Every structure is written in C-alpha cells, then in structure tokens.
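Figure 2 data, in text form.
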Amino acid sequence: MRPFTVLLFASASLGMAGIASAQSADATAAAPQAAEAAAAATASAAPVLEADGKVKLMAGTKVVDVSEALVGVLKEVELDAAGKPLNVVLKTDKHEVKFPASSLARTEKFAVFGMTQAELNAAAEKAQASAQASGATAEAKTEATASN
C-alpha cells in the first residue's frame, strides 16, 4: 500500500474548524524507530514554553482534547517564513493527521484540539475510505475510456 493523503473537515468543539489531511503510514515508509522514541521521550518530559508562557508547538508536544484526555503527539510542525507554526502532523494511536496549527489552542501544559482521539481516528478512517472509493471510481473510468 502506498502512502496517500486525503482531506477531511474537522469541526473543533473549541469553536475552531480546519481542513485536515489524514496520512496512512505505509509500514515500509514508517519513520525510524529512533525518531519515534525521541518524540515519545520529549512528550514525557516537561513541555517547552514560549515567551507567552504557553506550550511551544513542536515535535513531541502532547495534544489533548477539552477534557485533557490524550489525542496524540505532534510528529511534525511546518513553519511559515516568519517561523510561526503553519501546519502540524498529529500522531494518534492509529493515524497521522495533518491540519492547520491554528486548529490547536495552547495552555501552559498542552496543545488542545477540539476532537477526541476516537473522533479524529473515525474522521481519518472515513476520509481514507472515501479517497479509496474515489480512486477506484477514477481507475474504472480510465479503464473504460481506454477500452473504447
């Protein structure tokens, strides 16, 4: 299975909304175990704070829902030209999901996302199923066109 990206709409209960892309991790293209171990070690350490006293969005930052239940850990943070977080990749227990950094609120302990881990996993799975169905339909149309 090749890695692919699909779009999904995530409505956050914090009043934030964003477009997220779910990425299926191919076993052969998985990140090295050392990188994941480093991210896990960073996540268990005290959070790094910005000058405003709130957690810095960086690889290893814990992300929780509004009830402070773990959603996942940031795997990547894409910065804009000014060095501000633009997009993040959040690793849950099942998926890696990319969405705008603006969909996260920050506290002195965590980054907060408006969906639970189960809700985010379900949305990612729905988006993947939709993308696979769209891909199958596109392939069938291409084959039908080629045979005419």
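Caption note: The chain has one domain: 5-142.
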